[in-house]
Amino acid sequence: MNHIAAKRQKGVTLVELMISLALGLVISGAVIQIMVSNSVTDKFNKAVASAQENGRYIMSRLRDDLLMTGLYDPLSPNLSRLVDIVEEGAFVRNHPIPVPGDFPSRPALGAQQGADGANDTLVVSLQSDRDCRAYDLGYARVAPVPDEEFYVVNEYFVEDGKLKCRGFDGRVVRGQKVAVGHNGHAGVTLLDDVLSFQVVYGITRIGATNGTTRPIQYISAEELPQAYINNSHVVAVRIALVVRGDGEGFVTQPSRFKLLNEDGITAPDLGLYKAFETTITLRNTKNFARGAA
């Protein structure tokens, strides 16, 4: 009798087998779902991190580039004196943000407002030993002037979704000098995957702010020529842009953004996009405006 009972206890029944299979499927499905969810979350986090990193990098880079806007020091021993530096200094200080028509040999060069929400173009003037691409444009890099300085014009623009910069010898575009060195004006890429790049300019008017030279309003590039005629000075630049995160992080519906003075825009796909904005005080032009008050 015991021998028969022992035989009956061997193996599993069909019901037990079906229950085991069902439980295995449930557990396997849960594990797969967790793995898929973790993968999606990981991709999303990587896209967020890359957007944050790229946005912070470009804002820091632009801030470093633009802080010197309007700088012109005629007492610098490194300043090239191929032209009248008194006249050139006055030109740089009064045109820290050049506008189209300022340069005879390149009349289109200047800050521009993009039509119908298109990307803006930012152009700045300053004294430096290199342009925004780190090119010396043919100036001396050996003794007795190892870091010869000159009038630099830097242009920032978006082309094919890339934020780029290119530099010019201000004396060349003013028709005072023949171009030498890296004067091909090819743009170098600062950042990929830029959806929108917008700029407005904070202006002050002499005597309007009791000598504080704080911006009394922000205007677009197309308003700058009239502002200059009215004896206003640009003392700040406000920049906003939208960048796309790298990788395969996606959102459920296209993101919308409102940048500065522009109408709202919608991202072209479900990628992870993020907006960044900063205001850069142009300390050199503020000091000039304060001294002219």
UniProtKB/TrEMBL annotation:
One of its GO terms (biological process) is type IV pilus assembly. InterPro entries: N_methyl_site (IPR012902), PilW (IPR032092). The keyword Protein transport does not apply. Pfam families: N_methyl (PF07963), PilW (PF16074). Keywords: Membrane, Transmembrane, Transmembrane helix. The chain crosses the membrane at residues 12-36. This is Prepilin-type N-terminal cleavage/methylation domain-containing protein. The lineage of its organism: Bacteria, Pseudomonadati, Pseudomonadota, Gammaproteobacteria, Alteromonadales.
